[in-house]
Specification:
The chain is of the alpha+beta class. Helices cover 27% and strands 28% of the residues. Strands 1-2-3-4-5-7-6 form a seven-stranded mixed sheet. A hairpin with a 3-residue loop joins β6 and β7. The radius of gyration is 15 Å and the shape is globular.
């Protein structure tokens, strides 16, 4: 798998994704966010990001999408870690992401992000890097998801994670 930074927001990168294969495909056509992708023969995952409007030292990952037939293989986690590393190398001292489901929450944790204790937008939990990887913080985010109307797969996933430590970090 190859990971590539297509450009930072000021570079104006755009990316066309098939809306039937990628969630949020329309968000990647905009040129106002930076883009990163993972690919084999074709793009299988993408991330869009830009600096926080109120804190220039913070990069906000706005969207992450993995092609439907490749979800669950850790590509989102690897892509998040890749963007986090590039942000750090560029001088950002903080990276945030909002997630709206327990699978994305777990992927972000595996990439080094931690729950801030804050909800934002429409039911998104805010995670940050660097952060406190304590069990209580990890479980607090999972508990917020437990209060929601979830799919059977999400309920089963959360049941498995009751009382568990944060997941191991992915190797990049």
């Amino acid at each position: 798998m190859e990971y590539e930074l297509l450009g930072w927001p000021e570079d104006g990168p755009t990316l066309r994704l098939d809306h039937e294969q990628f969630a949020y495909a329309g968000k990647f056509v905009m040129s106002s966010t930076g883009k990163a992708v993972c690919r084999d023969e074709s793009v299988v995952g993408a991330a869009a990001f830009d600096p926080d409007r109120t804190d220039p030292g913070t990069l906000c990952i706005r969207y992450v999408t993995v092609r439907t037939d490749r979800q669950g293989a850790g590509l989102g986690t690897q892509l998040l870690a890749f963007v986090r590393e590039r942000a750090s190398n560029r001088g950002f001292d903080r990276v945030t992401i909002g997630v709206n489901n327990p699978f994305s929450y777990q992927a972000a944790y595996r990439a080094g992000f931690c729950f801030t204790g804050t909800e934002q937008g429409l039911g998104e939990l805010e995670l940050e890097w660097p952060g406190d990887r304590c069990v209580d913080g990890y479980q607090a985010g999972l508990d917020l998801f437990r209060e929601r109307d979830l799919s059977e797969a999400e309920v089963a996933f959360l049941r498995e994670k009751t009382g568990s430590d944060p997941p191991e970090l992915v190797d990049r």
